[in-house]
Amino acid sequence: MMTNLFSVFDPSTSMLNMSLNWISTMMVIIMLPMMFWLIPNRPTIMWSAITKTLHNEFKTLLGTNSMNGTTFMFISVFSLIMFNNFMGLFPYIFTSTSHLTFTLTLSLPLWISFMMYGWLNHTQHMFAHLVPQGTPAVLMPFMVCIETISNLIRPGTLAVRLAANMIAGHLLMTLLGNTGSHMSYSLLSILIITQIALLTLESAVSIIQSYVFAVLSTLYSSEVN
């Protein structure tokens, strides 16, 4: 039962299916025609408003020392994750964000680049960041160990948080969907309403988790400047 339940996250049944599954990661960008971005319409106007809001927020988090165009990198990360989260809600479309292969590919290079930039260009600041201000001298060795461990696990927590939230929602929808064939007609309407409510919740989670990933990445970047 558990094998069948988790098989909805299996990305590969053959080499062909494996490649087609991962192509769904870029499906939104591939399928949208160029005219969609050039001609003003409701979706593009709404998306422009969202990106402008994110740009202003990320710029505030990064501070005045950030380079021009840095915010667009995090907006791109937000867009990629959100599109993949939404695509995974459609039937028979592979959810790439539920796999650590995808989430670690995003979080690990970002974290490594932040650490390399910080330690090479702001070494003194990075050492000072290991000991929070006002820490007693007795606790300083312990705080260095704690801060070092918290820095090292950051890419893992980013990746696991996103993948776990996607897996949890999809598992719940799969469990409810599998029980539909064993229920009476009177209870089937309740199940459908529950599925619609859960799908709405998962849509909100898709946006929230992509926003959390982008904001935390922005905060990690601001710490090394």
TrEMBL record:
One of its GO terms (molecular function) is proton-transporting ATP synthase activity, rotational mechanism. PANTHER family: ATP SYNTHASE SUBUNIT A. The gene is ATP6. It is found in: Mitochondrion inner membrane. Mitochondrial membrane ATP synthase (F(1)F(0) ATP synthase or Complex V) produces ATP from ADP in the presence of a proton gradient across the membrane which is generated by electron transport complexes of the respiratory chain. F-type ATPases consist of two structural domains, F(1) - containing the extramembraneous catalytic core and F(0) - containing the membrane proton channel, linked together by a central stalk and a peripheral stalk. During catalysis, ATP synthesis in the catalytic domain of F(1) is coupled via a rotary mechanism of the central stalk subunits to proton translocation. Signal peptide: none annotated. This is ATP synthase subunit a. F-type ATPases have 2 components, CF(1) - the catalytic core - and CF(0) - the membrane proton channel. CF(1) has five subunits: alpha(3), beta(3), gamma(1), delta(1), epsilon(1). CF(0) has three main subunits: a, b and c. The chain crosses the membrane at residues 20-39, 72-93, 100-120, 158-177. GO terms for cellular component: mitochondrial inner membrane; proton-transporting ATP synthase complex. It holds the Pfam family ATP-synt_A. It comes from Ladona fulva.
